[in-house]
Request: fold
Amino acid sequence: MASISAFAYANVPNPVIFVHGIGDSSVAWRSTGPVVSRHIKKYYDISDHSYFFSGSGICADRDDKDFSDNVHDLCVYVTFSDHFADPGKLAQELKKVIDDTRGEAWANYRFYFKSRDDVKVNLVCHSMGGLVARKYLADNIKDHHVSKLILIGTPNKGSSALMFDWVPAGLMVGGVSAFMLSGNPAFLSASVVGIGWDAISYSRGVKILSPAANAMKPGSKFLNDLNSKNMPTDVEYTVILCTANDLMHVTANRMLGYADGDGAVPLDSQSLKYAGIPNFSKLDYKEMKLIAPHFEEPTMAKDLVVEALGLKK
Reply:
């Protein structure tokens, strides 16, 4: 039976908060969220019960136009105010979402709980969202109020692909500079390549030379600081390891020097085993595996998310 934070006679689940990755929004969970919601209702037999009023808007950005409701039943969908901000800054926004979620659950259903401190949440995170959640937990190790943390394709040791984020800008500037010095229009082709590279990256949700991209580089100050800190030992950690088997993403893995990965993040970076967390051996930790490319993981991981949340009878 799944764990609950409530009186023994009140079989009430923890709210689930979905945290998106770099350049994304709550729309990333448009298929996974409803599936989780249906399983919650089925598992807990609460078809007529909801913690939250639909559309109450608990999220960092209360005007997310990509998803009609940020809150639906027992699921909360985060949309950060700046999708390309440093994860350390976004951890403060996540804290507000968690506090708001717990506050609303306590205000409307306090008869289920012994106290406000008894209200906990489960976090389901993709890519950079997992780093935001980890930062929140590390900074609030004694009062985090999180029951489960599920990471999907999170670059816990960084993504080598981001080490080349300076190349497009270099091509653009270099091409224009060479043209101006020589008058040879052939040099402008380098600028065209740089612009195309930048456009493709942005279309895939990565803004090069952004604080978020810089934080996710291997060996970044953010990652070094995060991985040097203890994590709470009263949280259930599940990492969904993602690997891609299609030609395009396998080729991307090889070009980036990954033995295996999802086309953006290598497997050893997704795992928490190798992050260097000081108290890792004391964590309640497990891993699951999924075949999926990086940008399709939030959708393709829905069955594993349901399992990791303990919602399968």
